[in-house]
Design goal:
The complex is a heterodimer of chains A (414) and B (269). With 414 residues, chain A is of the alpha+beta class. Chain A has two domains: 183 residues, no CATH class; 211 residues, no CATH class. Helix content of chain A is 57%, strand content 18%. Chain A is built from 14 helices and 14 strands. A six-stranded mixed β-barrel of chain A has the order 3-4-11-6-8-7. In chain A, α2 packs antiparallel against α10 and α10 crosses α12. Chain B has a domain of 185 residues: 3-Layer(aba) Sandwich (Rossmann fold). In chain B, the strands form two sheets. Chain B has a six-stranded mixed β-sheet with strand order 6-7-8-3-9-10, with helices on both faces. In chain B, strands 2-1-4-5 form a four-stranded antiparallel β-sheet, with helices on both faces. With 269 residues, chain B is of the alpha/beta class. The chains are: A alpha+beta (414), B alpha/beta (269). At the A-B interface, α1, α11, α12 and α14 of A face α3 and α4 of B.
C-alpha cells in the first residue's frame, strides 16, 4: 500500500476520534514542547555569550597576549589560579620584539586597565575604568566614535593628556553639557576630552560604556599597574584565520625566547582568542543540551507507552477490519505498515503541535524573564524526528500483532 | 464437536465420479478449481477434529456451484481453503493452474487479491469508508494507481446499479445495497472465482432474490461462482450442488436432480 494512502488513512482515524487522539498525543506533545523550549533557551544563551559578551571583549580574528586569561567562565581551580599569579608580568619592553615578529596582514595594540576615580568640575568624583592604550586599539576593538576624534599618532607617541570617554561618562561627569574640550582629572592630572565613543551596550545588566581611555604613555599608566613599565595585554588582529595562526606561533616563540623557557617548560603567558574564551561555555552548553534533551525524554517515554497502549486497543477494536483487509489481499507487511504509519503519524502530529507550543513558550519566557531565547532550526527537525521515531517504536509491537492475526479468526470477530 | 469414526463409504454419484476422473487428469485451463484428497485437522485442546477427510472436487471455468452441508460438515473449513484463507494438512489444491496448497502467507495474500472475490454473509465492508473506498480496497493492495482505481471502482459500482451511491458509507445503505457494494468489491479485480459465504444470510427474502438475480446474471456472463449456503432454496439457484457431510462429499449433482430430490421448484428466471 502506498505511503500516502496510509498517512491519509491515519489522519482520517485521527479526525474521527478527536478526543482519544488528543489524549494519545498529549505525552509526545508535552515532551516535544519542553524539548523545543529548553533547547531554544540554551541556544539563546549561547548566542548571547558569543555575540554580546565575549564578542565585545575579544575582537574577531584576534588574540590577546596576557599574563593570564582575561575571561574565565568558571572551571579554574585554586592551583591553576596560583600558578597564574606567579607568572611574570608583561612589560613595555616586550612590545617592540613582539610587533617586529608579526607577519604581514596584522595590526597590533596594547592596553592596560584599572579602576580609578575621575574628578570633574561639574560633578562629584566618579568611579570608572581607565584604559591606557597604544597602537590600532580603536580599529581592532571596532569601537567607533559618536563625537570628537581619535588620538593622533603623535598624541599616542608623546603620551599627551587627552582622553576619550564612554557614553556613560558624559552624563556622570558632565551633566547636561558637551564634554568635548572640557577637562577631567585622573590621579590629580588633568586630561582634555577629545572624543566620545559609541555605546557597546550591556550584558547581564553590566554596562560596557563606563570608561575613560587615554594614551598609555600619558601619566595615566602610573595608575594602571604596580609599576609604570608594566602592561596588561598586547592585542594582535590578523586579516584572516591563517595569518592569525602564523602570528600566534611567532609571538609565542618570541615570548618563550625572552622568558628563556626550556622546551619542556609550559608557556608562562596566555594567548587568548574568542574561541578559547568560549571553550568553557561550549562545554557547559553541551551538558545543558544533554540535560535539556534528557528531561523531556522522560515525557516522551510516557508518551510512547500511551501510544503503544492506544494502538493495541486500536488493533483489538479493528480486528475485523484487519481480517477484511487480509481477505482482500493485504499482506502482512501491508498491515504492519498501516499500523506503523498510523502510530507514526499520530505521534508526529503530536510533535508538531508540541513544536508550536514550545516556540510559543520559549518566546513567552524570553519576554517575561531576562533569559534570552532563540529557536534553533535543528531543534524543530529534531522534534519532528523524535515524534516520528517515538511513533514507530511504540507502534512496532501493536502493528506486528495486527499483521500476525489469522484472517479466519479476525473475520469471525464481532 | 465429536470425533468422527470411519463411516461406511458415502454414496458417490455417477456424475461425480466422472468429474473426479477428469479432474485427475489436468488442473489447467478448463478446470479453475481442482482439489485432491484435501484433509484438514484441528487440534482442539488435545482432541483432534478431522474437519475435512479427503475432499476431491473439480470446478470448470464458468460453473455456478453451491456447496451445502449441515453445521459441522466441514463446509466452512472447505470454503476457507478454497478462499486461500487456510491451507490443508494433506492433499492438493490447484486454483487457476497454480498449486495453492503449499503456498506461504504472502503468496496466499497475492492469490486472494488476484484470483478470489469474497462476498460474506455480514457484508464485511469497512464501516468508516465510503462505498467507493471499499470497492477500491482490493485495487490498493494490487498496487493500482489512484486514478485507475477510482475509474474501475466506479465501473464496478455502476455494474451493480449503485452508481448514484458511491459516496455513501455502509450505514447509509440498505442491506441489499451493502451486499451489492460487497459484490462490486469482489469483482473489481476480475477474479477467477467469486466465493460467496451465505450471501443472503442477513437479508430478507425479497432482497435475497434480488442478490440471487445478480449472481445469476454474473454466472450467465461467464463468471465462475462458488456459493456456500445451508439453505436448499438458495442452493437451488446454482447450476450444480455439492453436499458435504462429515468432512466428505456426500453428493455432487446437477441442480435439476437436487431440486427434484428435495421436491423444490426451480427458481424463476
Amino acid at each position: 500500500m502506498p505511503l500516502i494512502e496510509a498517512v491519509r488513512l491515519a489522519l482520517q482515524t485521527l479526525r474521527v476520534q478527536k478526543l482519544k487522539s488528543f489524549f494519545t498525543l498529549a505525552g509526545v506533545c508535552i515532551g516535544v514542547m519542553f524539548l523545543i523550549t529548553v533547547v531554544s533557551i540554551i541556544e539563546g544563551m549561547g548566542r548571547y555569550m558569543k555575540d554580546d559578551l565575549v564578542g565585545k571583549i575579544i575582537a574577531i580574528n584576534s588574540f590577546e597576549l596576557r599574563r593570564q586569561p582575561n575571561i574565565n567562565l568558571g572551571d579554574v581551580d585554586q592551583a591553576e589560579w596560583e600558578s597564574w599569579r606567579r607568572r611574570p608580568r608583561l612589560y613595555i619592553s616586550d612590545l617592540l620584539p613582539v610587533v617586529e615578529a608579526l607577519p604581514e596582514g596584522t595590526r597590533w595594540a596594547q592596553e592596560s586597565e584599572s579602576g580609578v576615580q575621575v574628578v570633574s568640575r561639574y560633578s562629584r568624583p566618579r568611579s570608572t575604568t581607565a584604559i591606557g592604550v597604544d597602537g590600532d586599539w580603536f580599529a581592532i576593538k571596532k569601537l567607533g566614535l559618536r563625537d570628537g576624534r581619535e588620538f593622533t599618532a603623535q598624541e599616542l607617541r608623546q603620551g599627551e593628556n587627552v582622553a576619550i570617554i564612554g557614553p556613560d561618562m558624559v552624563e556622570r561627569a558632565f551633566p547636561g553639557m558637551d564634554p568635548i574640550g572640557r577637562e577631567l582629572r585622573v590621579g590629580g592630572v588633568p586630561y582634555r576630552v577629545i572624543g566620545i565613543t559609541e555605546s557597546r551596550g550591556s550584558a547581564f545588566g553590566i554596562s560596557f560604556d563606563n570608561f575613560i581611555i587615554a594614551p598609555w604613555r600619558s601619566p595615566i599608566r602610573k595608575l594602571l599597574n604596580p609599576q609604570p613599565q608594566m602592561i596588561d595585554a598586547i592585542v594582535v588582529q590578523a586579516d584572516n584565520q591563517q595569518v592569525l595562526t602564523e602570528a600566534k606561533e611567532r609571538v609565542r616563540s618570541v615570548m618563550r625566547t625572552r622568558r628563556a623557557l626550556r622546551p619542556n617548560q609550559p608557556d608562562n603567558f596566555s594567548m587568548e582568542t574568542s574561541e578559547s574564551a568560549l571553550e568553557f561555555w561550549n562545554k557547559l552548553e553541551g551538558y545543558l543540551v544533554m540535560a535539556g534533551v534528557a528531561l523531556p525524554a522522560i515525557g516522551l517515554v510516557v508518551g510512547a507507552i500511551v501510544i503503544m497502549n492506544i494502538m493495541l486497543v486500536a488493533v483489538a477494536e479493528r480486528t475485523r477490519e484487519i481480517g477484511i483487509r487480509k481477505a482482500l489481499g493485504a499482506k502482512r507487511r501491508d498491515i504492519l505498515a498501516q499500523f506503523l504509519v498510523e502510530s507514526a503519524t499520530l505521534s508526529t502530529v503530536g510533535a508538531m503541535i508540541g513544536i508550536g507550543l514550545g516556540i510559543g513558550l520559549a518566546q513567552t519566557i524570553a519576554a517575561l524573564t531576562p533569559l534570552p531565547a532563540s529557536v534553533a532550526p535543528w531543534s524543530i527537525v529534531l522534534g519532528v524526528l523524535v515524534g516520528g521515531t517515538v511513533g514507530i517504536v511504540s507502534g512496532v509491537y501493536p502493528a506486528s500483532r495486527a499483521s500476525r492475526l489469522d484472517p479466519i479468526v479476525a473475520l469471525r470477530q464481532e | 464437536m465429536s470425533q468422527h469414526t470411519e463411516d461406511a463409504p458415502l454414496n458417490i454419484t455417477a456424475e461425480r465420479q466422472a468429474v473426479v476422473a477428469s479432474a485427475g487428469a489436468a488442473p489447467g485451463r478448463e478446470w479453475v478449481i481442482v482439489t485432491r484428497g484435501l484433509k484438514r485437522e484441528y487440534d482442539m485442546g488435545g482432541e483432534i477434529v478431522r474437519a475435512l477427510r479427503g475432499v476431491d472436487l473439480a470446478v470448470r471455468r464458468n460453473e455456478y456451484v453451491a456447496i451445502m452441508g449441515p453445521s459441522g460438515s466441514g463446509k466452512s473449513t472447505f470454503m476457507n481453503i478454497i478462499g486461500c484463507l487456510d491451507t490443508p494438512n494433506e492433499g492438493e489444491y490447484w486454483l487457476n493452474g497454480q498449486l495453492v496448497s503449499t503456498m506461504r502467507d504472502d503468496e496466499l495474500a497475492r492469490v486472494r487479491n488476484k484470483e478470489i472475490g469474497f462476498v460474506f454473509q455480514t457484508f464485511n465492508l469497512l464501516p468508516r469508508a465510503t462505498a467507493l473506498a471499499n470497492v477500491e480496497l482490493p485495487l490498493v493492495y494490487a498496487g493500482v494507481s489512484a486514478s485507475e482505481r477510482k475509474e474501475r471502482a466506479m465501473a464496478a459500482l455502476e455494474a451493480v446499479q449503485l452508481g448514484q451511491r458511491v459516496h455513501h458509507r455502509p450505514n447509509e445503505l440498505s442491506g441489499g445495497q451493502r451486499q451489492r457494494v460487497a459484490i462490486a468489491r469482489a469483482l473489481v479485480n476480475r477474479p477467477s472465482i467469486l466465493l460467496a459465504d451465505e450471501p443472503t444470510g442477513n437479508l430478507d427474502s425479497q432482497t435475497s432474490e434480488e442478490i440471487m438475480r445478480v449472481f445469476e446474471h454474473l454466472a450467465d456472463t461467464g463468471q465462475t461462482v462458488i456459493m456456500v449456503t445451508h439453505e436448499p432454496d438458495i442452493a437451488a439457484h446454482a447450476r450444480r450442488v455439492v453436499v458435504l457431510r462429515d468432512g466428505q462429499i456426500a453428493s455432487d449433482e446437477k441442480r435439476e436432480k437436487f431440486t427434484e430430490k428435495l421436491g423444490l421448484s426451480l427458481p424463476q428466471k
